[in-house]
# Entry
Amino acid sequence: MSDATNEPGSELNAVPTGANIGSPAEVSPTIHAEHGMFGVQGTGDVSGFGGLVRRRPSTQDTPRPFGGYFDEVHDALEEAYPGFADAIEKVVVDRGELTLHVKPEKIREVCQVMRDDEALRFELCSSVSGVDYLGSDTRRLHVVYHLTSMTYRRVVRLEAAVPVDGRLPSVTSVYPTADWQEREAYDMFGVVFEGHPNLTRILMPDDWEGHPQRKDYPLGGVAVEYKGAEIPPPDKRRVYQ
Amino acid sequence: MTTSGYATERDTTEGKVFTVTGGDWDTVTGGIDPLSNEKIVVNMGPQHPSTHGVLRLVLELEGETVTEVRPVIGYLHTGIEKNLEYRNWVQGTTFVTRMDYLAPLFNEAGYCFAVEKLLGITDDIPERAQTIRVMFMELNRISSHLVWLATTGMELGAISMMLYGFREREYILDIFEETSGLRMNHAYFRPGGLAQDVPDTALAKIRDFLVYLPKKLKEYEAMLSGQVIWQERTQGVAVLDVTGCLSLGITGPVLRAAGLPWDLRKTMPYAGYEKYEFDVPTAQTADVWGRYLVRLAEIRESLKIVEQCLDRLRPGAVMVKDKKIAWPAQLAIGVDGMGNSLEHVAKIMGQSMESLIHHFKLVTEGFRVPPGQVYVGIEHPRGELGVHAVSDGGTHPYRVHYRDPSFVNLQAIPAMAEGALLADVIAGGASLDPVMGGCDR
# Structure
């Protein structure tokens, strides 16, 4: 027997070093697992993922101390922002990254403080993106902001959860760079950013229906219009047998 | 003949012709200045040789002055982020490499760093793999900047620069082909390491290239820097200062040309960049000229890093030891092209049942990644490339988002171009170096 035969067996159950179990996904207590993927039923699913069962643990607050600069950021924000206790729902440290879960209606205020306070100075909004955590109704769509402080060389993640077709204030007045990124999040997930100067689709055509990055938006099974004629999805086409 | 207030008339074979003259008409026609009062909306793109791909700019002009620019993107949207959710973690590399097609290795690197951080194996990546990654990223940075120099030269009238830039880039693509089998879209970086080791022939080519390029760079500088047309077209054009850059989220050479030495390789090092000696070039002019100088200097700095990589390169593995993650096969070139090495096939088919099971599980299902989310920012030739990866504990990415520098940087076009001349829109847009494949993803 070669050495490769011994190694897999001993390592199969080991968790990779450095990895912490702690999911960013939040699900309501009544839903423990999901079946299938992309919400496709019947023949529409050609991927073979229909039998998939996914269980997700809910996120837990990280106890203090958080380590690194995270405590400083947390305390500085608490000091500078009077509504801290009300706005920050949860603080999670995972894989050396700090996530502040923010109430969606407070996101603009928090960003304003994060940018302007001298002890925080998050001058650059690196990224705004969305994640669809299918399964939870009130917290299904998460908008994730990554802020970079060039002064202190720090990165912090802000996360706000909204229901489907949920609304939250736009941060474009604080970070003009969020303009296109919020448009992308709207285009892909259907999150409405209130106060955005021009919230239109950006990557998909203007008359597109649906928001493609949502988990219940199928990869296949969509009719395609080509030169005026409608081509049905593969599973609805004629079958030659 | 003329009677004030009346139109004169004249009989012709076609009928009566009235000639309208007089004080009233002269003042009316005189009051219209055809240049200042005429607003023209020009649609530039999506197919246009000067917009670097399928970028569409809707320009409102008054004469030759641009009053409003509206960039329209999305013509190259291919749904790569959505498609990733259908593939396993290893297959993701093959997809992301196609985003920004001029810097494919950076897309792969960002993705691999994110997956490795999710797995918690960042520190377990073999030294040799990280060194080769750094070396190839820097070569890719050079090739990307060469294309920038080539296309910008072409757009501003220096056609020969286009030929030279692409010629030198081909040299680098040969090195990539020698190593990964592909000129572009390599899928060479894999979560956990590299697809295969770099052959000695490619290393020899890199050594030759280190001697070859500096001479050529001098030629380009001699050709462009002193040239009056190049200076006139770039100096004081499309100015964007540090405040403008930060508020619009512009990073990379554009920000450094405004004077802020922000380079993630220095400020938030990854992949061992803290061990290399290099400078972060800056300029103070904040215009197209400054961006040109910064990019040229960056090519030289990248050459320095590549040289140090060659010195550091020690024999060793190029994949993590963990057999649960490392792709089991060893690629080799056979009579029918690149594929699994015969040695490996003989082993799994004839000697070790467990190896076969293991190979089968990894290839069909893939490895599982513990649930969580990470954000990794790396210094791309165009700025900060951010990868936000989310795992739900499965064998497929739950969500991967690319913060592509082309996408964010293109927002600066209105700020750079409004109020300037139409020709400067081209110079300003080119100085951002947008690649639409990365922008639209």
Observations:
- Chain A touches chain B through 64 residues (CB under 8 Å).
- The CA atoms of residues 15 and 74 of chain A lie 30 Å apart.
- Confidence is low (pLDDT under 50) at residues 1-31 of chain A.
